[in-house]
Amino acid sequence: MTNGNDDNRPVIGISMGDPSGIGPEVVVKALANDELRSLARFVIYGANGPLTLAADHAGIEPFWYRVPADSSRIDSPISEPVIVRDYQEFGDLLSLPCEPNRHSGAASKRFVEDAISDCQPDAEDARGVDAIVTAPISKQAWRLAGFKWPGHTELIAHRTRCRRSCMMFEAPRLKVVLATIHIPLMDVRNHLTIGQVFDPIDLGHQACQALGIETPRIAVCGLNPHAGEGGLLGDEETRVIQPAIDMARRAGIQATGPWPADTIFSDAVQGHYDLVVAMYHDQGLIPLKLMEQGKSTNWTIGPPIIRTSPDHGTAFDIAGTNRAEATSMESAIRLAIRLAHHSRKQGSLPDGTGQRI
Would you call 112 exposed, middle or buried from its count of C-beta atoms within 10 A (0-12, 13-18, 19+)? Predict the structure, then answer.
């Protein structure tokens, strides 16, 4: 959506996430912050009913303008500060149980699909947004609705035809990027290749530069206990991880390792490293969430669009109780705004080829 006046603030698209989870609540609570709303203009892809109910539970006066998702007004310049693109075909959302179900899966998938489309770099029509922030979805609900994608990261990489993408987490004291994402732990060693380890080092290096770190210091974790103990506990470190680090160093990247994962995160928190590359999901996220719970932001790096999200899931167990904290959602919105300004200033973002677009 383009500006209808001289307002040059970035336009941030926000997908509401699973309507049966805490997505509507954290979206409303985050954007209820007047100071945050002053930094950008917002388009919420979701449903007005769950948003209004979440606002009522939190004692928040609705601050948005509702526009039916199929209205022709969506194709015209809109100057309102916050728009809810209301998908009326999902009119039964308020009656859904607070658990994974195919109806909420279909709704959340539709919300994010349209947000991705509107954020494509060649979008020049009135629907264009500068970045998207995605509230949590349920992978199980997507599967129940018939969708194969394990998460936002894989879907965005496919929709943008991006050859390389990684999941990165940004927090005040710790930044982590993952070499593998949503795969069973038993399959991790079969997915690790030299390229699979080099990509998060390379893309993480570019992402840190986008955050203002000119020469990032990158620590790369080993896969095995004690980083393999010289081959006694596994050969992935010498066969796969070390060659990837060597390749990165030849490219001018300040990467070191492989380091034992049980010690390197504390070194990073103490300021010795700017980024840690973890080999698998829980290796990176357990220390991150232990040290930075509610303060970190998930950032998909590689695709030619900006996408951030909070560091938590749908929390079905507290959905509808007004107990959800919006701190991480607010952090995700602030990072999206920051990256949108960077993209406008530089005219580029790190992309999945290692080049600038």
Answer: buried
Residues 45 and 148 in one domain: yes
**In contact, 29 and 326? CB cutoff 8 Å:** yes
Residue 167: closest CA among 149, 158, 180: 180
Pair (18, 69) in one structural domain: yes
CA torsion through residues 37, 43, 45, 48, sign: positive
Is 342's pLDDT higher than 50? Answer: yes
- How far apart, in whole angstroms, are the C-alpha atoms of residue 126 and residue 129? 9
Say yes or no to pLDDT of 350 above 70: no
Upper half-sphere CA count for residue 289 (Cβ side, 13 Å): 11
Element (H, E) at 166: strand 166-170
Q: What crossing angle do the helices spanning 327-346 and 194-210 adopt, rounded to 10°?
A: 80
33-46: per-residue pLDDT in tens? 999 999 999 999 99
Confidence at 294, pLDDT banded by 50, 70, 90: confident
| Mean pLDDT rounded to a whole number for the chain | 90
Is the domain of 147 the same as that of 5?
yes
Mean pLDDT of 338-352: 73
- How large is the average pLDDT for residues 69-82? 76
Query: What contacts 147, CB < 8 A, 6 or more positions away?
Result: 105, 109
Q: Spell out the residues 6+ positions from residue 59 whose beta carbon is closer than 8 angstroms to its own.
A: none
> Which two tokens mark 96?
């859904």
Q: How far is CA 302 from CA 131, 154, 162, 206, 348, in A?
A: 14, 11, 7, 9, 12
CATH number for position 188: 3.40.718.10
Contact 206, 215 (CB under 8 A): no
Beta bridge partners of 310: 297
Q: Which residue segment(s) compose the domain that 49 sits in?
A: 1-164+302-357
Q: How many domains does the chain have?
A: 2
pTM of this structure: 0.89
